[in-house]
Design a protein that fits this description.
two-stranded antiparallel ribbon, 5 helices, 71% helix
Length: 153
């Protein structure tokens, strides 16, 4: 990766954060108990919904920090040196949708906030659907060997 446009630690932090968010997002559904993941030694915590939920929020905060770091660098210096690839643009748009629907989920979970059940369902399915589309897009980009989000100009 000598031609990488961003630092390797930022790329690795993004991939690790997205993978951990996907895992904790799935664990919020009762998948861990249903598929006996909680029976694996050291994985009993995966069945604790509230712990996994708080972990997901903490990881989302890390993701927002990384995105703020990238956006700040983009507007300060990167936009003159690098450009988004088509796969990068598509995944950035999907990621924007994931962040916005995630923020709506956080708002929905605030005490005293009551939304119509159809709105809740729309928010949940949008978030889950966009995460699945992001996973498929990342996998396709990797298979086509076009995984970088950006290239040098």
């Amino acid at each position: 990766m000598k031609n990488s446009t961003v630092s390797p630690w930022l790329r690795r932090a993004f991939i690790a954060t997205m993978a951990a968010l996907a895992a904790t997002g799935m664990m919020q559904m009762p998948l861990a108990r249903r598929y006996y993941i909680t029976d694996i030694p050291g994985m009993a915590w995966a069945g604790n919904f509230f712990l996994v939920h708080k972990l997901h929020y903490a990881l989302a905060a890390v993701l927002l920090f990384l995105l703020a770091l990238v956006l700040t660098n983009w507007f300060r210096s990167w936009r003159d040196r690098i450009r988004l690839t088509p796969w990068g643009m598509a995944r950035a748009a999907i990621l924007t949708g994931i962040v916005l629907s995630g923020l709506l989920r956080v708002y929905r979970n605030l005490p005293g906030v009551t939304l119509h059940p159809d709105a809740i369902l729309a928010i949940e399915w949008t978030h889950l659907g966009l995460v699945m589309v992001m996973g498929a897009a990342a996998l396709l980009a990797l298979l086509k060997k076009q995984s970088p989000y950006a290239r040098k100009r």
